[in-house]
């Protein structure tokens, strides 16, 4: 079956064929993803980051759409070449990622259709330029972990526990469901974020690392997904866990 690059970041138009995942995903998650016919590129540990997010894809790079990716300059060669071998054009960012906030968030930008939610002050200049070149509308927020904080549902719909992001989204006519913070595991930290435990595996199916039913706002989440004609699929049993966004990069093409 032929493949094509996903045109709109995070939002495939068919079944996903290639995705990037945290290198620490457990065997259950990996097996379930592969059963769906999805190949995985795993991230490697980035020693300059603190342990909890050291493998997170949404910290290490940003997919601009099509075959273009902006990547942190201090990412390991193995991951870089894995993307290059898949035909991606790699644009090296200017800012190095490091463990001290906000030095870990230059590429943590949430692309929602033609919008990008980000903290402009902390975002890598090269990534900013690429977004501006594409006429993407920038929504400046205080939260540096913008992508971690946002579960993308459609080109104009999100789920978040961040009140600042929620307000800014509504001001820009993006539908937003505000949920309670917490209830998502993140290694040694207190809790993770909804964006970091989710990602699309096909046009209409949003996947979660863990059981979305375990979240106290599950009913509201499921109703919100139904409103935008999306289904959900759990990739593992047990509680939700923030491995960083599952980032779809290629999809199957029937052309």
Largest sheet: 4 strands, mixed
Determine the strand fraction and express it as a percent band.
25-35%
CATH class: Alpha Beta
- Report the CATH architecture: 5-stranded Propeller
Helix-strand category: alpha/beta
Give the spatial strand order of the biggest sheet.
Answer: 1-16-2-3
Q: State the CATH topology.
A: L-arginine/glycine Amidinotransferase, Chain A
Mean pLDDT, all residues: 96
Q: Roughly what percent helix?
A: 10-25%
End-to-end Cα distance, whole Å, is 9 Å
Identify the overall geometry. globular
Q: What string, H for helix and E for strand, traces the elements in order?
A: EEHEHEEHEEEHEHEEHEEEHEE
Number of DSSP strand runs = 16
Count the DSSP helices: 7
Give me the Rg, rounded: 16 Å
Organism: Thermobrachium celere DSM 8682
Protein name: DUF6873 domain-containing protein
How would you describe what is shown here?
The chain has helices at 27-35, 57-60, 77-85, 125-133, 146-149, 163-171, 218-227, and strands spanning 2-5, 16-21, 39-42, 61-65, 68-71, 89-92, 110-112, 115-118, 137-140, 150-154, 157-160, 175-178, 198-202, 205-208, 231-234, 247-253. Strands 1-16-2-3 form a four-stranded mixed sheet, with helices on both faces. A three-stranded mixed sheet has the order 4-5-6, with helices on both faces. With 255 residues, the protein is an alpha/beta fold. It is built from seven helices and 16 strands. A hairpin with a 2-residue loop joins strand 7 (110-112) and strand 8 (115-118). The chain has a single domain (2-253), classed as L-arginine/glycine Amidinotransferase, Chain A (5-stranded Propeller), CATH 3.75.10. Residues 21-247 form the DUF6873 domain. This is DUF6873 domain-containing protein. It comes from Thermobrachium celere DSM 8682.
